[in-house]
Amino acid sequence: MDTLFSIFAFLFGAVVGSFLNVVILRLPDKNQSIVFPASHCPQCKTPLHWYENIPIISYLVLRGKCRTCKKKISIQYPLVELSMGLLAAALFQLFGPGTGFFLYFVFCAALLVIIFIDIQHQIIPDVITLPGIVIGFIGSFFQPFVSWQQSGLGILLGGGILYGIALAYYLLAKRDGMGGGDIKLLAMIGAFLGWQSLLFIIFASSLLGSIIGVAAMLKQKKGGRTRIPFGPFLSLAALCWLFFQPYILKLWQLYLQLALPAG
What we know:
The protein folds into 2 domains: 1-97, no CATH class; 124-263, no CATH class. It contains 9 helices and no strands. It is mainly alpha-helical. The radius of gyration is 20 Å and the shape is globular. The longest helix has 29 residues, at 231-259. The termini are far apart. The chain is 68% helix and 0% strand. Helix 8 (198-220) packs across helix 9.
């Protein structure tokens, strides 16, 4: 029975992922609505029939091309649908049916949108993070994963830590090294995951960001002025904590046991 419900959760997530593609495409443009017009080819603007808008399947059947103009459709579309489907199935396995599932479904959907928008436009929309902070804090009263005290401290510390880092970088380098969107994003993550998640998230995102950043510096040859979005690394680290927290804590305990002398 759990397998059947997980399949339903995957299908539900994939359908929502189809809508998230619309959000990713249109939200950065203030002149576009995420509701109207209906889904259409981003190249020739031809409206899509219902059978051309089936998550993942339509992309495969059409071989990644528009049926009308034959131009290639970005792999982003099935990737977002598949990712949201897998996240939904994983959330069902983690929380089962109930408040926790739907609360963190919203959280995962927000992170997925942020990852793709930040990669493409290097912005993190306030319309996602600011309501997300409120939803995460209010949701802490209705689920056992994070208490309201942990959520509240997560908001304060999450926003405060990155603000301090950004301010210190600005004072030393005399230029912005981190946008305000990253600060609000970590505050939102703290609201959903609690203050206890922040150390791992900052460490893991900084490590991954440094590796990718060095590679980007070597490729772009811009030195210290190479700019890469930090939001995707924060988001990926947050997802790791959400789904693998017990294993992360076990690894940390093992590290302490090996690092500290027996006393």
